[in-house]
Amino acid sequence: MRRAKGWAAALLCVLLLYTLTPPALALTGPKVSAAGAVLLEAGTGKVLFEKNAAQKLPMASTTKVMTALLAIELGDLDEIVSTDASAYGVEGSSIYLKLQEELSLRDLLYGLMLASGNDAAVAIAVHIGQGVERFAEMMNARAKRIGAVNTNFVTPNGLPNDDHYTTAYDLALIAAEAMKNETFREIVSAQYYRAQTGAVPRTFKNKNKILWNYEGGNGIKTGYTKAAGRCLVFAARRDGMQLVGVVLNCPSMFEDAAQMLDFGMDNYELAPLVRAGDRVAVAQVRGGMKNSLELVAGQDIMVPVERGNRAQYRTRVVVADVIRAPVQAGQACGYVEVLGDEGRLLTRFELTAGSAVDAASWFYYFKKAAKHIA
Q: Pick from 193, 116, 206: which is nearest to 159 by CA?
C-alpha cells in the first residue's frame, strides 16, 4: 500500500471551508469531581474534554462493557447457558442466579448491563471463555485491538483487584467501539427488561440515570466499589452526533456526566469533510480496459467541528500501488485516514471504485500494438 498525494489540493479546498472563519477563544470545559474523565465524539474518537484521562484507575462494574461486547461478538444470544457453582453467590450486585439455573445468554446480558449482576458476569465468562482466567485474557486481547493499551482486566465484573485497572481514555475507546454494535446499543439503552428464561421471573431496571434524565441519553453502564468510587460510562446522541464519556472515582457522577455532555453538545457539531461519492484519489490500474480509476468516498466522512472555529484535521490516503483489473464499481480499493492532534489516527473511511474496469481482452492489446506499429 502507498500513501496517495494527488488529491491533496482537493482536500485542502474542503478544509478551507472550515478554516476561513477566525478561530474562537479556547473553550473552558466543565469542572468535574472525577479523578479521571474524558468525553469523545464516538465516530472519530476525537477527545472533546479530558481530565487526567491517562491516569490508571480501578473501574468497578464499568468493566462489564467489555464483558458484554465480547459475549455479543462471540456468543449466540439465544443459546441457553447452564450456570455452574462459580456463578452462585458472587459478592456485590447480583441477579441472584440459582445453582445450575438455565438462562439464555441474552437474558444474562440484560442482567449484566441493567442490574449489574456480578454473578451474570461470571456465568458469561465461563460460557464464552471456559473460565474467568481465560475470559480475562480474551478481554485484554480485545482491548489491545481497540487501542486501549493502558488497561488490564482480571475479572469480568470489576470486583477489586490491584491488577485490574484502566484509564478514562481507554475505557471511552472501549465504549465507543461497543456502541458501534447494534445489539449492544439495544441492550444498554433499555430502561427495563423482563427476562424470558430462568427458574424465577426477573425484571431488570437500568441503574443508569442518564437514560431517564438526559435528552438523547442512550447508554451505557454504572459502577461502584469502595476502592474505585463511583464510576460511569455514559452516552448520548443528538443531531447525528454520538458522544461517549467516562468518569472514574466521581462522587457526583450523573451531574458531572450531564455537564460534560452539555459541553460537547453545546460547543461541537458534525461537519462533512468529504461526502459519499466525492472523488478522493486516482489509482493506477493494470490489465484493464483503462489504466486509471477514480476512487470515491464510500460514505460521508463526518468530523466534529468546534462551533464558530476551524477544523483541526489532517488526512492520509492509502491505496495499493497498482490495482489489477477487473474492478467492480463500489469495490473497496483503499481508505482515508483522519488524523487529529499530534498526528494521532482518529479513524479511517473506505475508498471505493467510482466505476467498473473490465479486464483487457486480447483484441484490446492487439489494437494497442497496432497503433504503435502504425
A: 116
Q: Under CATH, which architecture does the 2-20+272-353 domain have?
A: Sandwich (2.60)
CB-based contact 101:115 (threshold 8 Å) = no
- Catalytic positions are 61, 64, 116
Among the residue ranges 15-19, 25-29, 145-149, 277-281, the one predicted with the least confidence is: 15-19
Dihedrals phi, psi of 200, to nearest 5 degrees: -135, 155
Q: Taking residues 192-200, what's their average pLDDT?
A: 97
The tens digit of pLDDT for each residue in 28-87 reads: 899 999 999 999 999 999 999 999 999 999 999 999 999 999 999 999 999 999 999 999
Q: For position 40, what pLDDT does the model report?
A: 97
| pLDDT value for 362 | 61
Query: Where in the sequence of the chain do the CATH 3.40.710.10 domains occur?
Result: 36-251
Residue carrying C-alpha cell 468529504: 274
User: Domain spanning 36-251: which CATH class is it, in words?
Assistant: alpha beta
The 3-state secondary structure of the chain, one letter per residue: CEEECCCHHHHHHHHHHHHCCCCCCCCCCCCCCCCEEEEEECCCCEEEEEECCCCCECCHHHHHHHHHHHHHHHCCCCCEEECCHHHCCCCCCCCCCCCCCEEEHHHHHHHHHCCCCHHHHHHHHHHHHCCHHHHHHHHHHHHHHHCCCCCECCCCCCCCCCCCEECHHHHHHHHHHHCCCHHHHHHHCCCEEECCCCCCCCEEECCCCHHHHCCCEEEEEEEEECCCEEEEEEEEEECCEEEEEEEECCCCHHHHHHHHHHHHHHHEEEEEEECCCCEEEEEEEECECCCEEEEEECCCEEEEEECCCCCCCEEEEEECCCEECCECCCCEEEEEEEECHHHCEEEEEEEEECCCECECCHHHHHHHHHHHHC
pLDDT beyond 90 at 7: no
Q: Using an 8 Å Cβ cutoff, are 125 and 113 in contact? A: no
- Write down the pLDDT at residue 156: 98
* Sequence ranges of the chain with CATH classification 2.60.410.10: 2-20+272-353
